Amino acid sequence: MRITLSVIKADIGGFVGHSSIHPDLVSTAQEMLEQARRRGTLIDYKVLACGDDLQLVMTHTRGEDNPEVHQLAFEVFKAGTAVAKRLKLYGAGQDILSDAFSGNIRGMGPGLAEMEMEERPSEPVIVFMADKTSAGAWNLPLYKMFADPFNTAGLVIAESLHRGFAFEIQDVKAHKKITLNAPAEIYDMLMFMGAPSRYAVKRVFNRATGEIAAVSSTERLAEIAGRYVGKDDPVLVVRCQGNFPAVGEVLEPFAHPFIVEGWMRGSHHGPLMPTSFRDATPSRFDGPPRVIAAGFQLAEGHLVGPRDLFDDPAFDLARQEANLLANMLRRHGPFEPHRLPLEEMEYTTMAGIMRRLGDRWEPL
Ligand code: 13P
Ligand code: 13P
Ligand code: MG
Ligand code: MG
């Protein structure tokens, strides 16, 4: 059975500030998606949240970029924005950059990761959701999952993974893409993937079978809006087991927190902390950035789950390490490398300061 899994997300208002989501936004989305399920637009759905981002996880048989599914998500975000405005939630409608829907939600502000697949006899998938970070944050964990044998034992010992994976990498500024193969081209690949503010992995494929293994959201809000509105807070969908890494291999990269951009005003680096759904409420200095993992078994398109996969004491040390890294970076205050380099700053007073102080700068 061919199934499409569509994850579409947006920040339509935070509660309180940018720290979390109000339950009324979740219930509004649930009611509307339930109606869509009854109408037959969707097979199944789950409404989740990570920090202040509302996450619509939907299954259907309509394929990727389906106007009806995209319009549904858009209507949910509009209705949620109306609720957020009534409650005067923070940044109501923050990520909705346009009022007029014209067939595709791409480029309108929300992030999306869609994957059409032939549902296997058993189809375990993990939906990762992050808050306070940008598209590109998945580059490092995707490399580890699909190209690093120190992370994924299956690359070495499982026939089905041994030929490696192909990575589709997007240049989010020049709007181009390239596909590079692991392991043959890993040094070329890492040159791009190691610069996640410019290059983001969009898709990963099994090289032996051509099957899609992973898809992420690569929308850069600031690129679309032309100014700072909020962070991208991207999502990632990964298929597990069989011709793909095992569930534990897919989760393993998050056992060692790494540094991402997007903390406080989208302008600081911070550690990505894996947490349970309940703890995905970034509050300290609006962070540190969070990631949650929702595990599902698909059954004829039904979403059996979610299982809250980081709600496991095995990730306690990662959380502790993230807190230590957070302290270390916070000590830098307004200094780089905690603060982003000037050219990456999306939220800056520099232009105004330069205007005001321009004629006080003298030649050396
Ligand atoms: P079980 O024997 O618990 O099914 O585990 C198989 C496996 O390969 C886990 O990585
Ligand atoms: P969000 O992108 O999650 O809304 O965060 C914005 C921000 O500036 C937090 O400090
Ligand atoms: Mg917000
Ligand atoms: Mg957010």
Which range best describes the helical content: under 10%, 10-25%, 25-40%, 40-55%, 55-70% or over 70%?
A: 25-40%
Roughly how many Å is the radius of gyration? 20 Å
Largest sheet: 9 strands, mixed
**SS element count, helices:** 10
Structural class of the helix and strand makeup?
A: alpha+beta
Spatial shape = globular
Q: Mean pLDDT across all residues, rounded?
A: 96
Oligomer: single chain
Hetero groups in this structure are: 1,3-dihydroxyacetonephosphate, magnesium ion
Secondary structure layout plus pairing:
Elements: E1 2-10, H1 23-39, E2 44-50, E3 53-60, H2 67-86, E4 111-118, E5 123-131, H3 139-147, H4 154-157, E6 165-171, E7 176-182, H5 186-193, E8 199-206, E9 212-216, H6 221-225, E10 235-239, H7 247-251, E11 259-262, H8 263-266, E12 268-271, E13 273-274, E14 290-299, E15 302-308, H9 316-330, H10 350-357
Parallel strand pairs: 13-14
Antiparallel strand pairs: 1-3, 1-4, 2-3, 5-10, 5-14, 6-7, 6-8, 8-9, 9-10, 11-12, 14-15
The protein binds 1,3-dihydroxyacetonephosphate (13P) (2 copies) and magnesium ion (MG) (2 copies).
